[in-house]
């Protein structure tokens, strides 16, 4: 196994766990010295990978995501456009919720992050199993949207506003 292949496998191992992997255990796994693993980690960091060294071993730092709540209003025919606007700009519609005057907050997870997810969601709605949550509050509802940066969330907000979906 070449050093490059070992580093690729190291990334796979680290990405597949949330538990720190010790340099000694990794060295044993690959049949190399612990110092080789230390050097591999330095090379991975130099390539831009977020490798963390802890007192219990190495971890890959999960990319940080930021989130924002958007209050929106639209018709049922505009659901696809609203969700596609969010995912096309790099966002994930994590949930939908409404503030009902009697029942309080009613929330449902969505985790819609692609056009395919949008299609699956729309097919579920069309099946007649249920109606959109927005219907209980005359079209007004909220989405928690996550993305890789605040700039992405700003773009999503601007586009939702441009399309007339965003409420202030």
Automatic annotation (TrEMBL):
Gene3D superfamilies membership: 3H domain, Winged helix-like DNA-binding domain superfamily/Winged helix DNA-binding domain
Any idea which UniProt keywords this protein has? Metal-binding, Nickel
Tell me if Transmembrane helix is a UniProt keyword of this record: no
Per UniProt, residues of the Helix-turn-helix type domain are 6-58
- Is Signal found in the keyword set? no
Instruction: Output this protein's name.
Output: Transcription repressor NadR
InterPro entries (UniProt xref): 3H_dom_sf, 3H_domain, HTH_11, NadR, WH-like_DNA-bd_sf, WH_DNA-bd_sf
Report the residue ranges that make up the 3H domain in this protein.
Answer: 71-166
One annotated GO molecular function is: metal ion binding
Q: Which residues bind Ni(2+)?
A: 74, 82, 141, 143
- Origin organism of this chain? Blautia faecicola
């Amino acid at each position: 196994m070449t050093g490059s292949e070992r580093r690729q496998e190291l990334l796979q191992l680290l990405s597949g766990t949330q538990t720190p992997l010790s340099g000694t255990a990794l060295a044993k796994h690959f049949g190399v010295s612990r110092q080789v693993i230390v050097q591999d980690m330095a090379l991975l960091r130099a390539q831009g990978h977020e490798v963390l060294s802890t007192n219990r071993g190495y971890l890959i730092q999960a990319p940080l995501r930021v989130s924002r709540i958007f209050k929106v209003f639209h018709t049922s025919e505009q659901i696809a456009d609203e969700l596609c606007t969010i995912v096309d700009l790099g966002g994930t519609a994590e949930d939908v919720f409404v503030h009902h005057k009697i029942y309080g907050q009613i929330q449902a997870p969505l985790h819609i992050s692609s056009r395919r997810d949008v299609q699956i969601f729309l097919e579920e709605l069309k099946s007649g199993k249920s109606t959109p949550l927005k219907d209980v509050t005359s079209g007004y509802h909220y989405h928690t949207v996550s993305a890789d940066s605040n700039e992405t969330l700003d773009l999503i907000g601007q586009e939702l506003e441009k399309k007339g979906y965003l409420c202030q």
